Amino acid sequence: MKKSVLLASTASALFLAGGPTTTAVAQTAAPRTVTCASTAVFNTGADGAGGKLALSNVADPSWGYATGSGSSYPPPSTTWGTPVTGQLSTSAWVWTDSDTVSPQAQWLTRDATLNGSPNNYYRYVFNLAANVDPAQLQVTTTYYADDGVTAIYVNGQAAPSLQPNAWATGSPRETVPGSTTLSGNWVAGTNEVIVAVGNSGNSPSGLLVNTAIANCASLAAPAQVPTMEVWGLASLAALMSLGASFGLARRSRRRSA
């Protein structure tokens, strides 16, 4: 856990963007369906009811966790485990746990030891509602990490303009948030978000993510095309009306004759 220098986004070159190649999914909760009205779209440690999970060693079934060599995105043999909530007893993580900073998110880490590897991956899967236009969706993402977020992938594509989080240079050296807006790579149906977190050695490591929808548009409802049955009933009704009118006209002529 390096607290003496600001982290730069240099590790992005260590991860090569590509399509999802993982073979196992740790996510045990049913993938959430995201609409334009959704909040906390893929927050870490969220309880699904507008709050967050308990502080220590509670599994987050909506996220997956894995480690890797850093030479590919993510390692093809990745098996996703389930991360747990947790934070250090020092100010480094406590500062970012206050409800004013993260009322709907909690720190996640590999396990109760809080230790991570040099290359850590966190994965979230959700379904985009059928009436949401993927091209218009924008999700603002603010994140804290120990040591730092090095890349964020949406459906295998690395997010551009990633502002890295860092360590404050003063004392105490709390984590300083990074941020980005994710857009352009969303698709209809199932979507995958992977956050890569770098760490100095096998020391304490964790991730906290806050998200919100910044822009969302609904797709236009498809025009209703009458079925053959409707056309048939309409035609029958028109013929019956025409026949009735013809019959009335004949009876009227007979009376006047």
Q: Overall pLDDT, averaged?
A: 79
Structure summary, number of beta strands:
13
| Beta-strand content estimate | 25-35%
Percent helix, as a range, is: 10-25%
Question: Class by helix and strand content?
Answer: alpha+beta
What is the number of helical segments per DSSP (H or I, 4+ residues)? 2
CA radius of gyration is 28 Å
Order of helices and strands: EEEHEEEEEEEEEEH
Number of domains: 2
> Which of globular, elongated, flat, extended, rod-shaped describes the shape?
elongated
Unreliable sequence segments: 2-24
Signal peptide: 1-26
Protein name: IPTL-CTERM protein sorting domain-containing protein
Keywords: Membrane, Signal, Transmembrane, Transmembrane helix
Transmembrane segments: 230-249
Task: Write a brief caption for the model.
The protein has 257 residues and is α+β, with helices and mostly antiparallel strands. The chain is built from 2 helices and 13 strands, in the order βββαββββββββββα. The protein folds into 2 domains: 11-215, no CATH class; 226-257.
Would you write up a description of this structure?
This protein has two domains: 11-215, no CATH class; 226-257. With 257 residues, it is of the alpha+beta class. It is built from two helices and 13 strands. The strands form four sheets. Strands 1, 2, 5, 7, 8 and 12 form a six-stranded mixed β-sheet that branches. It has helices spanning 91-94, 228-256, and strands at residues 32-34, 63-67, 84-85, 108-109, 119-128, 138-146, 148-154, 157-158, 166-167, 175-176, 178-183, 189-198, 206-215.
